[in-house]
Design goal:
mainly beta; single chain; 14-stranded antiparallel sheet
């Protein structure tokens, strides 16, 4: 996946919510800042600015997520890459059904993705399928056990709580045309959950957690290097106070600035 289209949404999506069958996920809305992490001398990137707004809502039988991302990447030559992204996702709590709608405006050029998918992550051997409606109509087969937006973090928390240090699965989010991807996760205990950076957020962040490194590969890829990587702090309630998105020539830091718990439904 290249630095274009809906990559930022795809990266952010994998680590912010999950199924309550695995963890006590807190419905919430949050605001994050974006900044430059590391940059190679040859890349020419000098700064990253922007913000991410997320809203995770629980309804009877499903989760709904909305995201708004504004990102500005400055180049040493003086030019700026402007990218605005929006995403709305609906996923049944059993992980079988998924609906998605996303758009990216990159320097004035818009790309849209919209469709639905079904999978059977709870042990069934039959393959799933995704049906795109935008940018064009086409179908895509999904390997058995493919996880969607929420299911991936549910799986991560389950693996972490079981003590796994390395785990692998397949995921699909529908935010590009590249299809399902193989994900390799390296999971480490969180060294300092009482960081002063998080203390101001109170009980929502006073939780056990892990540092998770995710590497994404195309299903049929033979390359040792992943398509992209994400490193995030993931708490057991689904909150992510910090995330680093690793691109080929720079990294972008997503840092929590504000968070508020939302009420769940009475089903």
């Amino acid at each position: 996946m290249k630095y274009s289209g809906l990559m930022i949404i795809a990266l952010a999506a994998v680590v912010i919510a999950a199924s309550p069958a695995v963890a006590d996920i807190v419905p919430h809305r949050a605001l994050y800042s974006l900044s430059l992490g590391k940059a190679t001398s040859s890349g020419g990137f000098s700064d990253v600015q922007g913000a991410v707004k997320t809203r995770i809502e629980k309804i009877c039988g499903a989760w709904i997520t909305t995201e708004q991302i504004k990102m500005r990447v400055k180049i040493q030559s003086g030019a700026t890459i402007n990218q605005d992204l929006t995403y709305t996702g609906w996923e049944s709590t059993d992980g079988n059904e998924y609906r998605f709608a996303a758009s990216s405006v990159l320097d004035g050029e818009e790309t849209r993705f919209r469709g639905r998918a079904e999978s059977f992550p709870n042990g069934k051997d039959s393959p799933g399928q995704a049906e795109f409606r935008e940018p064009k109509e086409f179908d895509m087969d999904l390997p058995p056990g493919t996880l969607f937006y929420f299911g991936l973090t549910a799986w991560l928390i389950e693996q972490a709580e079981a003590g796994a240090k390395r785990a692998e699965t397949i995921t699909f989010d529908g935010t590009d045309e590249e299809g399902p991807q193989r994900v390799v996760a390296i999971i480490l205990p969180l060294k300092d959950k009482s960081s002063s950076m998080w203390g101001k957020f109170g009980a929502l962040l006073d939780r056990p957690g892990w540092t998770v490194r995710l590497a994404f590969y195309a299903i049929d890829s033979k390359n040792a290097a992943p398509s992209y990587e994400v490193e995030a702090v993931v708490l057991d309630n689904g909150v992510t106070p910090r995330m680093e998105m690793v691109f080929s020539e720079f990294t972008a830091i997503q840092k929590l600035e504000k968070i508020e718990a939302l009420k769940g439904p009475e089903c």
